[in-house]
Amino acid sequence: KKRLKFCLVSFGILKTAPVHSYTPANAEPASRPPWVTDESFSQKFAPGKTTTTVAKHILPRGAPVPSPASTPAYPSPVSTSSQAPAVARGTFQRAERFPASSRTPLCGHCNSIIRGPFLVAMGRSWHPEEFNCAYCKTSLADMCFVEEQNSVYCERCYEQFFAPTCARCHTKIMGEVMHALRQTWHTSCFVCAACKKPFGNSLFHMEDGEPYCEKDYIALFSTKCHGCDFPVEAGDKFIEALGHTWHDTCFICAVCHVNLEGQPFYSKKDKPLCKKHAHAINV
Fold it and tell me: Which residue ranges form the domains of the chain, and what is each CATH number?
């Protein structure tokens, strides 16, 4: 006679998944997802939770001292209707030249009337000779500049004193900055560990300290249902039986397809069977 195994099943419900997945240092075997093995997973990485860190930076000797908020180096005009749209920190800008005309704007630096050619930058007008780097005093009339701490700087001074460092290539970031994992990156440096494609604004998952895009994380690390071969995702009710993980709706008798959740069952050829079909020949 053929021997039949009589088995019991355990089941549960996955906790809410976060935007970024996480694997604790003392995680159980990789076959079990982190939201099962770590009870505090959903609290640590809840979608609406934010974290704030404060870092102390030591500026090089002779670095420009930040201007107090009450006394900016370049005062804003009285009217706010002419203010330029806000730009991201570290964005390169360039002043636009205008010839002398009947228009007599106020200089954003000295607040005096400009009666000749003038520059327009950051939504304000300037005497060309007064639109200079706040540190090295280089003229920015025909150069790119960066606005920082209510002052303007040339590219060289901004890079030396203010530009953040990329966590991957360890060089200064000039222009667009990616903030992730409490660090700063070049947008081209923060990439999936598997396919090497930049994430942009896409979601990513962490595994063994490396970021992965959604597609590669599912393919490499997700727990798949033995019945349908699709991932067991957060919020799915699952069952562990016969050495595999199943969706609760996929754990059924291989013959009559009756659901076996919470019921005693038999197995044959690694397939679950109900009591009625425990002796079925064609499985």
Answer: 93-161 (2.10.110.10), 163-221 (2.10.110.10), 238-280 (2.10.110.10)
